[in-house]
UniProtKB/TrEMBL annotation:
Organism in which the protein naturally occurs: Streptomyces atrovirens
Transmembrane annotation, as ranges: 21-46, 58-78, 90-109, 115-136, 148-172, 184-202, 214-236, 242-258, 286-307, 319-336, 348-371, 377-402, 414-436, 456-475
One Pfam family hit: MFS_1
Gene3D superfamilies according to UniProt: Multidrug resistance protein D
UniProt-annotated location(s): Cell membrane
Membrane topology: Multi-pass membrane protein
SUPFAM superfamilies: MFS general substrate transporter
PROSITE patterns associated with the record: MFS
Keyword Membrane in annotation: yes
Domain Major facilitator superfamily (MFS) profile, chain residue ranges per copy: 24-484
Designated name of the protein: MFS transporter
InterPro entries linked to this entry: MFS, MFS_dom, MFS_trans_sf
Keywords assigned by UniProt, alphabetized: Antibiotic resistance, Membrane, Transmembrane, Transmembrane helix
Length: 491
């Protein structure tokens, strides 16, 4: 933290704009990390929570997905609220609410209270997190912004891969017998520090001060809620009902988009500015982000299941297996922030090659190696995968967001975060569907041997590898186009 502050402060001073930028960035990036971290840390705590509260399996799942669903549904509204009412003000509202709801989660004594508190926690995260990029764009000088946006992208990815590692370690350590409450209590001192740093250092900024489109926010929220519900329950839906639900999602989105275009034509304030998607690099970049995060989250879900059920290892052992992935991501992210602009294209392609190689090695050892050799080789393959992800994530997000106008940076950040949430939900559903089909039923059925699990895991990994190759192609096209075309004025 101190090194980061010194580096950014010196950059700001060199630019003549003064010091203190490191404190601003540490505060808002810590919020970015803890918001994404809370999405994944509960995955390994779910069995303990279910036993301690006497919750049903469905209630336990709601604890996990209630946060992510509420977060994804409200992101666009949260981003636009910051543009209208002030990014600093809404960020502080969100941070205070996130800290308070974390305390309510930790003190919950029934599954119902915990589910409601988790949904409220997701809503407060949707107020807090879309403001981060807008604050970077409005508060930091140009000399610092590029590095800050790269760190922002790396922080989003690191939060997702670090959650399972820290969750498993915290469950194994179990300080003071807190059990599943520990991850929520950790948020309290961190939340206080975030609020203190933002209150002291973050300046206020606004987008166009126009009336919020409440009708559009409701339409978009309903569409996203239905889509996430469909993705989460796609295994249990009959094909006809699945098609009907997706048709309803499409109809809601069509009505929403028509309304947004009318508001834009009348110079009002839409929730999602249609002009963002007329930026070809922004639209192509979102497609690359969708493929990138879908492949990563699907693979992580598969890995957690395969190690615990296929290899019969404990949650702690599973979390330790994630450690090389997190370490590789963190290392590559630190290096990636220092890469010159003219080398970004080659760096991204190198990261894609590392990702593909790591996935291929992982698939090969699962398919042909005995269990003892698998556990010996997997850390190296996962470390390679993490290095590749760390090189790509920050550069990709930085390039996508650099095309957004500053006055719409809150909305652009919310669009990006919404796409990553949809990628996470969709990839888990797709991997689960393929996995279930390969096993011929419930993936957890005891009639299947570990060898069956290994073969199914290998096949699914190859599917994810194919998705990763598509992501690589999209990222390659995005960076190639950026390299060939001059920057538009004001970008």
């Amino acid at each position: 933290m101190r090194t980061l502050r010194r580096t950014l402060d010196s950059g700001g001073a060199a630019d003549g704009a003064g010091a203190g930028y490191g404190t601003v960035l540490v505060s808002i990036l810590t919020a970015t990390f803890i918001g994404g971290f809370d999405s994944s840390i509960m995955l390994l705590a779910a069995p303990t929570l279910q036993s301690a509260l006497g919750a049903s399996f469905a209630q336990t799942q709601l604890v996990v997905v209630g946060y992510t669903t509420a977060y994804a549904v409200a992101l666009m509204t949260g981003g636009r609220l910051g543009d209208v009412f002030g990014r600093r003000r809404v960020f502080l509202w969100g941070a205070a609410g996130f800290t308070l709801t974390s305390a309510v989660c930790a003190l919950a004594t029934t599954p119902t209270v915990l589910i409601v508190a988790r949904v409220a926690q997701g809503l407060t995260a949707a107020l807090m997190l879309p403001q981060v990029l807008a604050i970077i764009r409005a508060s930091l000088p140009p000399a610092v912004q590029r590095r800050a946006v790269g760190l922002y992208g790396a922080t989003i990815g690191l939060a997702w891969v670090a959650g399972p590692v820290c969750g498993g370690a915290l469950m194994a350590w179990d300080p003071y017998g807190l059990g599943w409450r520990g991850p929520f209590l950790v948020n309290l001192p961190i939340g206080v520090l975030i609020i203190a740093g933002a209150w002291k250092r973050v300046p206020e900024s606004h987008g166009p001060r126009k009336r919020l489109d409440v009708t559009g926010a409701v339409l978009l929220g309903a569409a996203l809620f239905l889509l996430l519900t469909v993705l989460g329950g796609s295994l249990a839906l009959a094909p006809a009902r699945l098609a009907l639900a997706l048709g309803a999602v499409g109809a809601l989105l069509a009505v929403f988009w028509a309304r947004e275009r009318r508001l834009e034509a009348r110079a009002l304030s839409p929730v999602v500015p249609p002009d963002l998607f007329r930026q070809r690099r922004f639209a192509r970049g979102l497609a690359a982000v969708l493929a990138f995060y879908a492949s990563n989250q699907g693979f992580l879900a598969l890995l957690a299941y395969y190690v615990q059920d296929g290899l019969e290892r404990s949650p702690l052992a599973t979390s330790l297996l994630f450690a090389p992935l997190s370490a590789g991501f963190a290392l590559a992210s630190a290096v990636g922030g220092r890469i010159p602009a003219h080398s970004e294209h080659r760096t991204a392609l190198g990261g894609i090659a590392l990702m593909a190689t790591g996935l291929a090695v992982f698939a090969a050892v699962v398919c042909w190696a005995p269990v003892s050799l698998q556990l010996a080789v997997m850390p190296g393959a996962l470390g390679m995968l993490g290095l590749g992800q760390g090189l790509v994530a920050g550069l990709l997000i930085s390039l996508v967001l650099s095309t957004a106008p500053q006055e719409d940076s809150g909305a652009a950040s919310a669009v990006l975060l919404t796409v990553t949430q949809l990628a996470h939900a969709g990839s888990v559903a797709v991997v689960g569907s393929v996995f279930s089909a390969l096993l011929g039923g419930d993936p957890g059925a005891g009639a299947h041997s570990a060898a069956d699990h290994a073969r199914a895991a290998t096949s699914t990994t190859l599917v994810v590898l194919a998705v990763c190759v598509v992501a690589g192609f999209l990222v390659h096209r995005l960076f190639s186009g950026a390299a060939r075309r001059p920057e538009p004025a004001g970008a």
